[in-house]
Amino acid sequence: MDNFFTNNHNSNIFSIKIKQSLPIVIYPHPILRQKTEDIKDPTKPEIQQLIQSMLITMKNNNGLGLAAPQINQAKNLCVIDFQNKIYILINPKITFFSQEKNVAEEGCLSFPGKFLNVKRSNKISLQYLTVSGKRKKLMAEGMLARIIQHEVDHLQGKLFIDYTNSK
Ligand SMILES: [Zn+2]
Q: Which domain holds residue 96?
């Protein structure tokens, strides 16, 4: 019995449990059309746990981004993994969209195998809360700006198939 406990002393059974990958919600699941609820206190353990699970789920699915509705949580939160940098965006709000736009192909974990050309602003400005609840601003352009726009759309119940006139 002693051995049992000793052997497991340093194992991270608990963290494996909370860091498990979650199933991705596939369109047309209704939650993908729901508007999300703001997160009042990002430091709450259940929110921190949700963020960890989202990061693992994004990584396991080779996603560039993942929004909470895609793991069946109507919460205003998304994560992005772009050029070896992780962005955790809580209650994100895009405050500026450049007039200049570009068209590029996008995929979405909730639409396996579907790729569409979507027209989006080249540059954006964004406000959001960090994991510790601090207000932050971010300016982004190019591919990062595109990913952020795609993920923030998810948080409003908007999907890339809605950009039918993108040419
Ligand atoms: Zn998506």
A: 2-162
What confidence tens digit (pLDDT) does each residue in 48-72 have? 999 999 999 999 999 999 999 999 9
- The span from the CA of 120 to the CA of 103, in Å, is 6
Residue 127 lies in a domain: yes
3-state DSSP assignment of residue 116: strand
CATH code (residue 123): 3.90.45.10
pTM: 0.88
Total domain count for the chain?
A: 1
Q: What are the C-alpha distances in Å from 16 to residues 19, 47, 49, 63?
A: 5, 17, 11, 20
Tell whether 113 is covered by a domain: yes
Residue 14 lies inside a defined structural domain of this protein: yes
Separation CA 138–CA 126 (nearest Å): 5
Could you tell me if residue 167 is inside a domain? Answer: no
**How close is the Cα of 2 to the center of ligand 1, in Å?**
48
Residues marked as catalytic: 151
Beta carbons of 160 and 116 less than 8 angstroms apart: yes
Q: Ligand 1 centre and the CA of 121: distance in Å? A: 17
CA 104 – ligand 1 centroid, Å: 14
